[in-house]
Specification:
seven-stranded mixed β-sheet; alpha+beta; 42% strand; 11 strands; four-stranded antiparallel β-sheet
Length: 178
């Protein structure tokens, strides 16, 4: 027998291993569920796309749990996340993302939003890509008051493509200019 103030060898090692195992399990579950939540928020991390024989480029987006169409793409080669917004006149870009994409602030103006009148700066996007759809010289607004990492993909870009919704899918089509 062990004296009353001494624990048997290995018992504290077992408790330590149990704590480490429990901690690793929590980390693994956190990473797993973070991925699940991300895919529910943006089911279009890698949008599905194709091109028809006659050169029509198509991108098919799935609606997220909130009923929005969110998809990854690029602006001037910089990876971004778009939220398609047919109610937005221009592509609206948070100032932090505009800096990353090397966008120049043009003239200052006011824009009416759901949150009231705000100040924005005009800019032009050299290149906007969503799947295999590539648009050039797109009018946009740099919005200093806009927080987050999501860009509102407004009608200044969407007017250049066709879109059709069926069920929970939205198909975007870029018709080649002849």
């Amino acid at each position: 027998m062990f004296p009353p103030n001494q624990k048997p060898p290995g018992r504290s090692i077992g408790k330590g291993m149990l704590i480490v195992s429990f901690s690793l399990g929590l980390v693994a579950l956190t990473i797993f569920f973070d991925g699940v939540l991300q895919s529910q928020s943006n089911p279009n991390n890698e949008p599905e796309f194709n091109e028809t024989d006659n050169g029509i480029k198509e991108v098919v987006l799935q609606r997220n749990r909130q009923g929005h169409y969110v998809a990854n793409g690029t602006i001037n080669g910089v990876p971004v996340t778009f939220l398609l917004d047919t109610g937005a006149t221009d592509v609206a870009i948070p100032a932090a993302i505009a800096r990353k994409a090397g966008l120049n602030q043009g003239y200052i103006s006011q824009a009416a939003t759901a949150n009231g009148i705000i100040q924005v700066y005009s800019t032009i996007l050299d290149e906007l890509q969503l799947g295999n759809i590539l648009l050039h010289d797109i009018k946009a607004s740099i919005t200093p008051s806009m927080e987050g990492e999501t860009i509102l993909l407004g009608m200044s870009a969407l007017k250049q493509i066709e879109f059709m919704q069926r069920g929970s899918n939205l198909t975007l089509r870029q018709i080649p200019a002849f």
